[in-house]
Amino acid sequence: MENNKTPKKPSLAQSILILICVIGAVAAAIRTGVGIQMALALGACIAIVGALVLGNKWNDIQNNIIKVVGDSAVTLLILISVGMMVGIWIIGGTVPSLLYFGLKLCSPAIIVPLTFLLCAVTSLFTGTSFGAIATMGLALFGVGLGMGISAPLMAGAVCAGSFFGDKMSPLSDTTNVAAVMSGTDLYDHIGSMLRTTVPAAVVATVLYAVFGMRAASANADLSSVELMKTTLAENFNISVIALIPALAVLVVSALKVPAVPALLGCTVVSGAFAMVLQGVDLQATLSAAMNGFVSDTGVDLVDKILSRGGMASMYGTVAVIILSATMGAALEQSGIIKAIVDDGLLKMVKKPRGLILSTMAYCYTLMLISGHQVMPIILGGRTFRPAYDEMGIQSRVLSRTLEDTATIGAPLVPWGTSAMYMMAVLGIGTSYIPYAFLNYIVPLFAILYACTGLFIWKTDGTTVKNTAAAAK
After folding, report:
1. In a 3-state reduction of DSSP, which class is residue 181?
2. Fewest Cβ atoms nearer than 10 Å: which of 136, 150, 208, 422?
3. Residue-wise pLDDT tens digits, 202-246
4. C-alpha to C-alpha distance for 114 and 120, rounded to whole angstroms
5. What is the dihedral of CA 109, 112, 115, 118, to 10 degrees?
């Protein structure tokens, strides 16, 4: 039945109450283990009910949902392309070659910083922290233990490196979600994140080098490394040439080629390389692109690492984006987000510094409640986007702040999905958390920039720091 009520502007108290109901429902559903998709579906339903109660017509809500979901279409195409590409990269020898050359560099003195860097490269190329943890991370974790390095230190390096790429890669779902939810161009978003993440990565590398040299053992067992290298060489044509498809992704990213044609083009090129280098036929290549690659080398560790990818692996993430866009559209149409920004944030927060720190606190709170990085990015982007516009701060500052907190902080929440995945894959408890150095250092740089105005860009192209200096 059509709702004929005249929509009314919600009060700040009503808006906060409905938002709490939405957040509470999503968090409660996540805790039951039904998955983030079902949790977001429940949150979307409550947001829609809230909009209807406030007198909004269903057609208006529906039209806004169509608009917001439509705005996410590019992101959905990117994720589907990434899934296909990862499957092809495995069957085509790109991921096996990355693993092989990475393992070839191993030595006890540098295994810890090398683990951080190689996991960072793997996650940057594949766009997934989970994939990096279960491939390069799992392999190097086992190698490090064989060399006598402590499990918490090795796992911390795996975690930090894997989430570096999850945050920075144009192939990452969180990178794309943060860009979409804040209304930022993907490459502008990545360029903004370089300011906090690269210096943090340099500091983290130095720390891992120092800790690694202290922990290095002279009684290292390299038998597991040799077994993995032999297995990879026997089952794939390992070659530097096989790395070209992965390098191509970095090149098109640096050239700022539009994401969808760039990734689809790289997927096609990767398929051609797979058929030429590995001798696989078109059917096997397309099957890997659709359903992922299934490894059958006979070595359990290698098979576990290489059995992944495919378009089908992205369906869950696609559902997350569609459902989160639906939830955000309903909250937006009802006027709840506008009321929170106009009557709450902008009255309490007067300066960019306070706005950025408020964004960080909001995201951390939602992440502690939900145990997942997606909800803080989605709700943080939709809630704070108008406030950044009103204050004249570029959206790439918002998108960076979302990832400097939610994406990088997710594995530090013991009951969160990222931490649970880390512990399940590596077979370790929460002892790795103090050693995930990058995940602590990135937000420190974000706070530093917020307080100094450095790299906080205004819509007129100046920075807050320059504006403050000119005013003196």
Report:
1. helix
2. 150
3. 999 999 999 988 877 655 566 777 888 889 899 999 999 998 987
4. 10
5. -60
